[in-house]
């Protein structure tokens, strides 16, 4: 694409991303990446587009309730592009301090005209001007909790059932915030202190984190994937909770390891790193297009001890039985722990979807356990905080496999403060600052 054809307006990037997320089932993070690549924006405008996308999507239910109170046309009858333009406009006016109201209104009107019609631009003008006039009374209005937190009511009820009202509220409040940008040091190429120095020279502040020795927390940068040190494979962008699941696996040199749901390879590459680029990790995933991502990551990080295979973990081969010293099952899950990063998840989930996911998790965990060799470990992990997908799946395994037990002897130095009495590691954005994660190590009786 010629630079002249690229989008120069951060609000235009934002509405295109949100349109794809809303109407084409795209994921927020992937759609944003795609549209930023079609744009030529300054660093400040990249930051603005990113904040508009995430802020609008995270607060969507709350924003929609404001639009409903201002527009005579019911929400469902507002055309797709205009609804998105209005959401971005209201987000800037009600949730951001730094954007002047006239800019939010004028830019919205321009986009309404370009993406729909002059008449639609007039409608945007009417609603946003009314939003300006009525701001005080609208802000003073008491909304139900699920609207304030922009979370479907059934989901708030589900979390309240398991965790109580206060915790559920805190959890969803924290999920409206911004995730820390953490990276895993590629210890095959550098150590943590060296990498902190290299990043400093690239203008990025980074410091060691709380739990994982290989985790650095970076500050004030949106595009860490664009640095030279990234291309050189010195680190992998990853949440600390994800790193901890590999720490729980306690891989030893020479182990044979199976990663059953591996793409895009965050944990596979961590395991390969722990094996010091020797031994072997078998990385499987059901989706062939995602396997390419594993290959790309392996190559960038300079690893050559990974064997990647397209394979459905629901179908175990005879030859897999009792074969691996370590098995990682990073199961497909509802993703409730990562709605801070992928806010569209909370609107796309349903009780029925969760039910279907649990059935798959139960079948996968039996197959994962059956692949273990005597004395081996299975780590079951998810990025959800829903006990039906976590503790209940583990209970299902324990009921169905006599030799399985929860092994709580995780490395003391890392897990001392975060393992509970049942042997589970449960992380929450409102408690630990990490994504929401569940990690358990299962042993096999001889
Ligand atoms: C939580 S993600 C894995 C993330 C990965 N472990 C990482 O750290 O980068 C779950 C993965 O499970 C895969 N998956 C879903 N159903 C599967 C199945 N039946 N067999 C194998 N993989 C499956 C999905 O394609 C997805 O990539």
- What count of domains describes the coordinates? 3
CATH class of the largest domain: Alpha Beta
- In CATH, the topology of the largest domain is named Rossmann fold
In round numbers, the mean pLDDT is 95
Task: Please state roughly what percent of the residues sit in beta strands, choosing from under 5%, 5-15%, 15-25%, 25-35%, 35-45% or over 45%.
Answer: 5-15%
In this entry the ligands are:
S-adenosylmethionine
Oligomer: single chain
Would you count the extended β strands for me? 12
Question: How would you characterize the largest beta sheet?
Answer: 8 strands, mixed
Which regions have little confidence, pLDDT < 50, spanning 5+ residues? none
Distance between the termini: 60 Å
What's the overall geometry? globular
By CATH, the architecture of the largest domain is named: 3-Layer(aba) Sandwich
Notes on the structure:
- The chain is α/β, with parallel strands linked by helices and 446 residues long.
- It has three domains: 3-143, N-utilizing Substance Protein B Homolog, Chain A, CATH 1.10.940.10; 181-237, Alpha-Beta Plaits; 240-444, Rossmann fold.
- Helix content is 48%, strand content 15%.
- The chain contains 20 helices and twelve strands.
- The chain has helices at 10-23, 28-37, 43-58, 60-70, 80-95, 101-115, 118-133, 135-140, 145-148, 153-163, 165-175, 192-201, 228-231, 240-249, 266-274, 288-301, 344-348, 351-370, 391-400, 412-415; strands spanning 181-185, 205-208, 215-219, 235-237, 256-259, 280-285, 306-310, 324-330, 372-382, 404-406, 424-427, 437-444.
- Strands 5, 6, 7, 8, 9, 10, 11 and 12 form an eight-stranded mixed beta sheet that branches.
- Helix 5 (80-95) runs antiparallel to helix 6.
- The N and C termini lie far apart (60 Å).
- The model has no long low-confidence stretch (mean pLDDT 95).
- The structure holds S-adenosylmethionine.
- The site of S-adenosylmethionine has 19 residues, from helix 15 and strand 6.
- One of its GO terms (molecular function) is rRNA methyltransferase activity.
- Its EC number is 2.1.1.176.
- It is found in: Cytoplasm.
- Keywords: Cytoplasm, Methyltransferase, RNA-binding, rRNA processing, S-adenosyl-L-methionine, Transferase.
- S-adenosyl-L-methionine binds at residues 261-267, 285, 312, 330.
């Amino acid at each position: 694409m010629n630079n002249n054809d690229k989008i120069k307006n951060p609000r235009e990037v934002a509405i295109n991303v949100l349109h794809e997320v809303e109407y084409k089932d795209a994921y927020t993070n992937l759609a944003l990446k795609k549209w930023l690549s079609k744009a030529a924006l300054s660093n400040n405008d990249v930051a603005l587009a990113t904040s508009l996308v995430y802020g609008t999507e995270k607060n969507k239910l709350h924003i929609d309730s404001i639009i409903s109170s201002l527009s005579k046309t019911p929400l469902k009858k507002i055309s797709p592009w205009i609804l998105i333009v209005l959401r971005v406009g209201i987000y800037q006016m009600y949730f951001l301090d730094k954007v002047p109201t006239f800019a939010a209104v004028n830019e919205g009107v321009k986009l309404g005209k370009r993406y729909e019609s002059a008449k639609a631009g007039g409608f945007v003008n009417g609603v946003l001007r009314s939003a300006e006039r009525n701001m005080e009374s609208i802000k003073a209005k008491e909304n139900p909790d699920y609207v304030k937190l922009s979370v479907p009511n059934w989901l708030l009820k589900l979390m309240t059932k398991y965790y109580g009202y206060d915790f559920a509220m805190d959890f969803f409040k924290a999920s409206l915030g911004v995730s820390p940008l953490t990276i895993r040091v590629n210890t095959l190429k550098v150590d943590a202190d060296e990498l902190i120095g290299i990043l400093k020279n690239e203008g990025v502040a980074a410091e060691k984190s709380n739990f994982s020795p290989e985790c650095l927390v970076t500050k004030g940068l949106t595009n860490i994937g664009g640095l030279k040190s990234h291309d050189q494979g010195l680190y992998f962008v990853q949440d600390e909770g994800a790193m901890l699941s590999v720490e729980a696996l306690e891989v030893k040199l020479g182990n044979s390891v199976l990663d059953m749901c591996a793409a895009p390879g965050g944990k596979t590459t961590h395991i390969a790193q722990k094996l010091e680029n020797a031994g072997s990790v078998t990385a499987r995933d059901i989706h062939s297009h995602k396997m390419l991502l594993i290959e790309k990551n392996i190559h960038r990080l300079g690893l050559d001890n990974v064997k990647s295979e397209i394979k459905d973990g629901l179908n175990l081969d005879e030859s897999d039985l009792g074969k691996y010293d370590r098995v990682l099952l990073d199961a497909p899950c509802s993703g409730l722990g990562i709605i801070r990063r992928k806010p569209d998840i909370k609107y796309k989930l349903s009780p029925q979807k969760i039910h279907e996911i649990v059935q798959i998790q139960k079948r996968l965990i039996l197959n994962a356990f059956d692949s273990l060799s005597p004395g081996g470990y299975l780590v079951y992990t998810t990025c959800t905080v829903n006990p039906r997908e976590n503790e209940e799946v583990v209970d299902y395994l324990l009921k169905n496999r006599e030799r399985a037990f929860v092994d709580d002897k995780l490395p003391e130095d890392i897990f001392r403060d975060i393992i509970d009495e049942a042997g589970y590691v449960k992380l929450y954005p409102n408690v630990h600052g990490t994504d929401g994660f569940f990690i358990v190590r299962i042993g096999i009786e001889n």
